[in-house]
Specification:
mainly alpha, 3-stranded antiparallel beta sheet, globular
Length: about 230
């Protein structure tokens, strides 16, 4: 009887800390929404950033020697959407003898998926490991710019197109104002930043998983003891 009495009181007299009115519920949703708490009030730096596997996949995709044909490129671009996003495929970087797209172009599409998107960011930032250009390879009167880094260690983005640099811990994984997501948040608000982060999370998880399965299959197929199992499947 005591249990029934307490349950009845809980139903008829809700807890005072639960928002009761429509105005209170709206205020709570706005104040406690993740999109509105992506930066710290202390200095305005982002508190949400890529970690671990997301940084690994971003770095591997954006390396200088990553090239994809049209089938591979469109497949990877489909990873960061759920068939509900219109994507404009950019022209290839290499036309002859085979049309090839770079891994950096994947992030161009990720930041600005189509021409209707108004996200046009400009970023110039040091990557996690920067190798400075050697001055002896240039004219004595010339001071080489940091974007001539031999190891692609300086990120330059112009109008949402990556000119050089890689996506690593310093550019997508650090909670800095000059990170890619920090710039999107500053210039275009938390909704665009959250959408870009969501696309990056989907892309990295799906591409890394697919690449890992392919690598494992290739490694197993080279071993005689596993060849019969793979053929039988």
């Amino acid at each position: 009887m005591r249990l029934l009495s307490s349950s009845f009181q809980a139903l008829t007299h809700p807890a005072p800390d639960v928002p009761q009115t429509e105005e209170a519920r709206t205020e709570a949703l706005e104040l406690m929404s993740v999109k509105h708490n992506m930066v710290t009030p202390r200095n305005g730096e982002p508190v949400i950033a890529a970690i671990q596997d997301f940084i690994t996949a971003s770095y591997l995709l954006s390396r200088r020697d990553q090239f994809f044909d049209r089938q591979q490129f469109t497949q990877i671009c489909s990873y960061f959407a759920d068939a509900n996003l219109h994507i404009d495929i950019p022209p290839p970087t290499i036309w002859k003898p085979v049309r090839l797209w770079t891994g950096k172009q994947i992030f161009n599409v990720l930041i600005r998926p189509n021409k209707q998107s108004k996200v046009l960011i400009n970023v110039e930032s040091k990557c996690n490991k920067e190798e400075k250009p050697n001055k002896k390879h240039y004219s004595p009167h010339m001071d080489p710019a940091p974007d001539l880094s031999p190891n692609d260690g300086w990120l330059v983005i112009v109008n949402s197109e990556i000119m050089c640099g890689v996506m690593d811990k310093a550019t997508v994984g650090s909670g800095k104002k000059k990170s890619v997501f920090g710039i999107i948040m500053r210039d275009y608000g938390p909704h665009e930043a959250a959408s870009a982060m969501n696309r990056l999370a989907k892309l990295c998880a799906r591409w890394l998983g697919a690449s890992f399965v392919s690598s494992c299959s290739l490694a197993l197929s080279s071993k005689p003891e596993y060849q019969q199992i793979l053929v039988s499947r």
